[in-house]
Predict the 3D structure of the following.
Amino acid sequence: MRRIAAFLLALSFCGATNAQSPDTGTGQTEGEAVPVYPVTVFPPSPESEDKEQRRERVVAGLSQDSVGITARYDRMDILIYGAIKREAPIPSGSLDVIVTVEAPSRPLTIWRKERKAGIWINSEKVEIGAAPGFYAVASSAPLDEILQPDWDRRYRISLPLALRAYAGQIAVKDAVPFTEALIRIRESNGLYRLDEGAVKLVDQTLFRADVRLPANLIEGDYKTRIFLLRDGKVIDVYRAPIEVRKVGLERWLYRLAFDQPLVYGLMSLAVAVFAGWGASAAFRKLRRA
Amino acid sequence: MQIFLPIAEVSVNAFTLVGLGGLVGLMSGLFGVGGGFLITPLLFFIGIPPAIAVATGANQVVASSVSGVLAHVKRKTVDFRMGGVLLAGGLIGSWLGVWVFNLLQSVGQVDLVVQLCYVVFLGLIGMMMLQESIRALRRSKNATYRRRLHQHMWVHRWPVKMKFRASGLYISVFPPLLVGLAVGVLAAIMGVGGGFIMVPAMIYLLGVPTKVVVGTSLFQIIFVTAFTTVMHAVSYNTVDIMLALLLIVGGVIGAQVGTTLGARLRAEQLRILLALLVLLVCGKLALDLVLRPDELYSITSGIE
């Protein structure tokens, strides 16, 4: 019920304003930052679409809605599964599903190296106000075949659009190579991922997708979005959170390092001194024996 | 076995880290250096963020220095007074260094400066050591040469003279203070104990007898790196205790094996090997700076 209410709220919001991002679930304050890609006019909202199409809804679940980072944490798969609920016969046209999983956004700086006095040093930079630390897109078919660009812009689905905003003044002539580099670097690290065809759709009704979380996971509230598309248009969105938290020893050490840095620093020293002394004592005994 | 590092926020293989620590420990036992100059670049290489590699590297050096200095205290080859003066300079230098490090990090040039420091110092030290050890090797073949106890240089005649009994020196207090300061700055910026700079500086600049150099250098390195570790931990939360622990476990074992191994090899040959190793690391870092990198762009977290 709450989901439907939120959905309706989103609809009315879209209808009311065209110039703002309709993606209300972000929790990001964009302030006066300049959007990375200019957002022009949005397509008509689903409200004005054919009523028949809107009868299709996504019902979905996650294999887990919270992830605990323990010392043994490594890459992990999250299974996202669901069904398409409809009260009428299956309409004609192609049906597709896109799943996105997004880590909390953090500000970052992209540097470009330049040759100065014979050596390569960081010279120009572009600051990004908010870029997700992890972003995975899984779809049932290649994105450019199933998603119309204006719908992509509306929900900021594809990778370049997921970067929220530049921060401050842009000092470089052309910032696009910088954002391309950000995506390229993070793609090669496995932090940004596009898995076209990773969503398995059965009989236009059931679907599932496995999204692999990276080994270097940051804490925070992750967002999962499931888009239902008909003929390139988004007809329903389902949102679910994934809570990622350090647990146990990891959590204790992390909190100590930030809350009691002096105690933590002294503890690190004690470990080092004890290990150094212990090793030399142990080996002396070993040699005598 | 993968392990998630709580501060670095990366998952790495625990055995890789123990192995790295062991390798560096072996070097330090074999050659009598802390090994920090090797561990920090190696940590960069396996994907630990530079700030965390530097701070945690300092913590690891504490462990290997404690392990080493205990043996020297037993043999009475530590000049505590000289160590104390070097330390006084070192603490000021370390404080300065952590401050400079943070400044560089905020302007995005920390990688460059750390790399440049490595290239310059490894290059200088490597050449000096190579030259010295080749000369020593020749000398030992025709063993007629006898060195003077130590040479007096003009810096030794500065005011405020002090007696350093264990070293048999009566020199101004300022040269050791300055040497300590310089090494302290480098220790904080490069994440090293500075043994590879301190040892030659003590021999060639201060004229400290070789017998007491290693023990004294290790003695003061413990305190400088301990101070650096706490400074980094308190100011920037960049010490990863889990990472440190794994490196230390490998390091202390490697150091003991290295010491045993080192006793069976000839000192001059060992020093030539170390000099070549230092030059190799230096050459690799220099090439990285001069050659066009594969990826011109890099990402740092946060904005000004």
Notes: Residues 2-142+149-289 of chain B form one domain. Chain B has one domain: 2-142+149-289. Chain B touches chain A through 60 residues (CB under 8 Å).
